[in-house]
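Researcher: Please translate sequence to structure tokens.
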Amino acid sequence: MNNSLAIKWLKAGELALGTIDTFLIWKMSGGEVFATEHSNASRTLLYDLRSRQYSQELCGIFEVTMESLPTIQSSIGRFGVTKGVHGLPDGIPITGCLGDQQAALYGQNCFAPGEGKITFGTGTFLLMNLGSKPVLSDKGLLTSVALSSGSEFTYCLEGSSFIAGAAIQYLRDKFGWVQSGADSDKVALSEERDPNLIFIPAFAGLAAPYWNSNARACLIGLSLKSSKAQVVRAVLESIVLQNVQLFDLVSECLKRPIKRLAVDGGVARSDFLMQLQADLLQAPLVRPGHAEATARGAALAARQGLDPSLTVPELESPVVFKPKMTTEKSRSIKEPWLKAATKVHEYYSG
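Model: Translation complete:
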């Protein structure tokens, strides 16, 4: 710790540390509940996945006292009640809490091992249900608790990329080449695809499996014939190509068939990109009628915490995207991109 005042408070036992959920529960309960739950606690770097508690060793490494950390409770269950919150009556039960991406996994009804989801937001997040036992990856993927309910625990494996929707915003704000996500599809499809154009969207570095914060975005294969539409298409393709690598790594770790893969988030509204994602993964995708899986998952957790006897409703109006591209065609698109991504990583690795 570099903050001398924080160190002083920590040593005096006056400092409370927690993630955003802890702060919200603290505020909503009028300062009466200092708690978190397992999906958030497991992402603090202070949590032992096997003991399901804070690790004394890790807390020692980071110079954090166990006493300064919130109590870890079940994700689904009673945390407390509202008290002194402007605009809300006192006494409303707080009965569910989940991490952002874990909530989306739950909101997509991915309850069984081998069921997963991809959330397309500013970046992309692929989470796969592992079941009741954690599987650790040496390929740059992250293992965390997906959900806990009483004594039952579900784990998940996560791969992420930093840029997805942000790439479309870049084209809009910096060049004015597109006006929206729907407009970017029209522009990209207005001309024939250039197979030589490859875009690596490392504006903020490369996430899994490279974890290279020094890497930067690259456009490869430009010629005097390259057009705006073809560059836009290369940028859009890069959004879904990132997930191919993550999908393959998750499949390798899982050591079992992937049963179902759902999609959500703003970019998932694009039929063009979701069909391309299914083609490149050579796997079907399910897009429910609602786009906000995280909000649905948080609401379902709170609902189950209020009444565990309630059944979880089915997904509304799902659309299924089945692969239409041949395996050979899919490979001809993804292999050059994966090679380029590795080269960019190597170049920026010094």
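Researcher: Any highlights?
Model: The chain has two domains: 1-97, 105-350.
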